[in-house]
Amino acid sequence: MTEKFPPTVRGTIVANRLMSDLSWLKVGGMADYLYQPADKDDLSNFLSNTPKNIPVFIIGVCSNLIVRDGGIRGVVIKLGRGFNNIDILDNNKISVGAAALDSHVARKAADVGIDLTFLRTIPGTIGGAVKMNAGCYGSYIEDVFESASVVTREGKLITLNKEDMHFDYRSSEIPKGSIITNVILKGNHKTSVELKNKMQSALDKRSESQPIDARSCGSTFRNPSGFSSTGKIDDVHDLKAWKVIDNAGMSGASIGGAKMSNKHSNFMINIGDATAADLENLGKEVIKKVYADSGIKLEWEIMRVGEPLTE
Length: 311
Ligand SMILES: Cc1cc2nc3c(=O)[nH]c(=O)nc-3n(C[C@H](O)[C@H](O)[C@H](O)COP(=O)(O)OP(=O)(O)OC[C@H]3O[C@@H](n4cnc5c(N)ncnc54)[C@H](O)[C@@H]3O)c2cc1C
Hints:
Blueprint: E1 12-18, E2 30-36, H1 40-48, E3 56-59, E4 65-67, E5 72-78, E6 86-90, E7 93-97, H2 102-111, H3 126-132, E8 135-136, E9 139-140, H4 141-144, E10 145-151, E11 157-161, H5 162-165, E12 179-186, H6 192-209, H7 241-247, E13 254-255, E14 258-260, E15 268-270, H8 276-294, E16 303-305
Parallel strand pairs: 2-5, 3-5, 4-16
Antiparallel strand pairs: 1-2, 6-7, 7-12, 8-9, 10-11, 10-12, 13-14, 14-15
Bound molecules: flavin-adenine dinucleotide.
């Protein structure tokens, strides 16, 4: 390991990068450094030559993150061009770079008759989707996941199979500080027309029920029912976060520029000039009010990262 930080890279590394520019919610202070690796060897070299006391944090497109107003200490890593390949392997398998957008992957897969249609309406990257076990309308990444190529915090290149991932409701486990660089997904084979229709109806369904044009991170809180013992969303005790928020009278509630959407009360939106603190404080208020109303303790689905602003 070299002593000099940052080490020489083939990608780009910049100091003091404003995170609000990169985040879906348009909030967040400075990252000490933003590193965009050229490819997986560049990433591996960077990680093995970065002292272990310097924190690293990988982002996709921050579609599930509130970055706090004081920013992120250490290095934020964002995968770019070298990681957005989409390669068809056979009739039902596809190899995708972790920076590829879910919606692009769904459309490319549909072109060749592979059903990954549930990804069409999820705004993130494949790396973020795997980490979060993203899913909707009854399908989850874990259903289509075969393996992932990963670079560990020490810079080692490893492969993780499904049993290594410990997928759960909106989560998976990869070694701490590791970065997914490529994923193999498999889907059922259907006709392209069938898949395109399916994607269109998912898009229609979303725009009917969710504020898709607003700045949000999708669902703010996990549905209290979560997974059942069969590993799928529990339809019997189907308890939706939006319902308990509605019941607590918090639909439309706001703090500063943060508001719980009237269209879907589990969507927290930045209506213009919200700070991360506005968003986080509104979330805390919703948790408090829902608990007082129903005894249910909502859990965040959106991750909050970084430091609050200090006076
Ligand atoms: C309008 C809207 C609708 C949404 N609907 C849904 C939905 O239906 N279902 C759903 O599940 N989610 C939904 N989301 C939430 C979000 O899109 C998903 O959680 C998505 O998978 C996050 O991907 P991302 O690339 O933006 O990751 P980020 O938000 O940037 O990061 C999320 C987590 O993934 C980790 N991560 C990102 N990339 C990598 C990588 N390469 N290697 C390792 N870890 C990585 C980050 O460190 C972080 O822990 C929605 C969001 C919005 C804005």
